[in-house]
């Protein structure tokens, strides 16, 4: 900066612009997931505690719900601690010559060199005044929410094995898997194992659907 520019800025009373102080909620939007996990865990806890248990078989029908509640409480607590310690603040800087990618991804892939970072810091005026766009993947969210709703509505008609396998395939597809035959096979395997576990170990039968009428 020249002496003339320095004097001009000093005479005009301009102050250096610093970074705005981040709010507590910045980068901590995942607390919504924590709240949902705690809500589901509390709902299952109340339902398990008020369950009308007939007989004194061991481990009993309350065993698996209690395990699920413990896992939900533990997962929500660990996630809350992680969010408090390391908030996921989006990177709003521009990295020229690397397309529409975030800095974290570029560093992970090893495509962001130190030389280009130094060149960018030395000549920031040559880069466009553009910020990264942060967004939610509403397509994936819609597929997951729609899949769970369809699973609840079709559980009685299709039965546990088919509806759970279909839900597994839809979740895998929403998260990027493109192997439908493999995913459906894995879904059928796990849903069948769960059906047998509930029937043999707990004496409980999950909804058989129209498949139960065939056999």
Task: Describe the overall structure.
It is a single chain. By secondary structure, the chain is mainly α. It folds into 3 domains: 24-85; 92-128, no CATH class; 138-214, no CATH class. The chain contains 9 helices and no strands. Helix 2 (31-49) packs antiparallel against helix 3 and helix 7 (160-174) packs across helix 8 (180-201). It is flat.
Give the SSE layout.
Elements: H1 3-11, H2 31-49, H3 63-85, H4 103-109, H5 114-122, H6 138-158, H7 160-174, H8 180-201, H9 209-214
Helix pairs in contact: 2-3, 6-7, 7-8
Average pLDDT rating: 74
Please give the largest β-sheet.
Answer: none
Supply the helix-strand structural class.
mainly alpha
Instruction: Report helical residue fraction.
Output: 55-70%
Helix/strand order, N-terminal first: HHHHHHHHH
Tag the structure with descriptive keywords.
215 residues, single chain, mainly alpha, disordered N terminus, 9 helices
Short description, anyone?
This protein is mostly helical. The protein has nine helices and no strands. It has helices at 3-11, 31-49, 63-85, 103-109, 114-122, 138-158, 160-174, 180-201, 209-214.
